[in-house]
Design a protein that fits this description.
- The structure is a single chain.
- This protein is mainly α and 105 residues long.
- The chain contains 3 helices and no strands.
- The protein has one domain.
- α1 runs antiparallel to α2 and α2 packs antiparallel against α3.
Length: 105
């Protein structure tokens, strides 16, 4: 029978593992978005300004989302690991705004 500390570590790995995998997939997909944007602007320089604006907006929102994911990783994996910061765990954090970006892109 594992002790309480081992059970706590197992519980944390169940929470943190899928988040890290999702972050790595998001980094890969951000690279795909960035390369598609570069290819689009090189291949179709004569498109309408509205379409170009939508492509830029999509890239900007995806970049904002990637920055927010990096902030979440910093907040949970570095900042909240220190015992004096445990009180910040249940607080509302401003990275929730990035969720709206994923619905728009």
């Amino acid at each position: 029978m594992p002790d309480a500390e081992t059970q706590e570590l197992i519980g944390l790995s169940v929470l943190y593992g899928p988040f890290v995998v999702g972050m790595m997939i998001d980094c890969f997909l951000f690279g795909v978005t960035l390369s598609q944007t570069i290819i689009y602007f090189r291949q179709y320089p004569g498109d309408k300004p509205l379409l170009k604006t939508l492509v830029w907006l999509s890239l900007i929102l995806d970049t904002f989302h990637m920055v927010m994911v990096a902030e979440v990783v910093h907040f949970w994996y570095i900042f909240c690991r220190r015992p004096e910061n445990y009180l910040g765990l249940p607080s509302f954090h401003w990275y929730v705004l990035s969720l709206a970006c994923k619905f728009w892109t």
